[in-house]
Amino acid sequence: MHVKIVWSVTNPCDEQAQTERHLEKSNLMERNGSAVILCAVSSGSSLSFLWMNGSSEVKASDRVQLTDGGSTLTIVNVTRYDQGPFRCHVVNPVSNGTSSPVNFSINGPDNMALTVNGQNMTSFSAGSNVTMICLAESSPPAQFLWAVRGELVSTTGPLLEVFSVSEDQSGLYSCVLKMSGKQSSKFNKTNKFSNCHAKLSLLFLFIMCIPYSKSTVVIIKTR
Fold first, then answer.
1. Which domains are seen in the chain, by residue range?
2. Whether the predicted model's global pTM rises above the 0.85 cut
3. What are phi and psi of 207, to 5 degrees?
4. CB burial of residue 221 (10 Å; 0-12, 13-18, 19+)
5. What is the pLDDT of residues 184-200, one digit of tens each?
6. For the CA atoms of the chain, what is the radius of gyration?
7. Phi, psi (rounded to 5 degrees) for 69
């Protein structure tokens, strides 16, 4: 019994899924994307399917679906825990077989956090100094960008400092991760932008194709 795996993937900003292909090595996909993996058998009937992720059996959950008698594995909103290696084991009364292991490389940030003056402060007196720090675990490494009221500013890196703030500097401040790599989106052809927080404005989400950022509203009060 010959067993193999074929798949299709949809990434968050893709216009359509990639074409079906054989999985024989590590395959890159974006965090929060979806994967549909099919276990194909050369011959046989009365088949039972078992999926493994490393040494753990894959079971149905809110993100994982097993359909078509267990031969099709669907994972939505993939995380780094979905990297594999995945194997499909097939058994019937007269034979059995196991596919070669396959892996995903999950491209995207995790554990994104934004602090203001070392805390979760949002209200400051005019004339104060404001320091924002953005942290994230990212694979591949990401560039940190900043946006103020939906507009990118020239500051890059995990630190944004605003000195002697005034009332007209109140508003939405966002830390945005820019990840290198080919992006098959009509909004951006060369970079992946990622967001971890739904508070980002819808306009910014649409234009930049960002599903990964962290935002805070800063209010400046007169003394």
1. 3-102 (2.60.40.10), 109-221 (2.60.40.10)
2. no
3. -70, -45
4. exposed
5. 222 222 233 333 232 22
6. 23
7. 70, 15
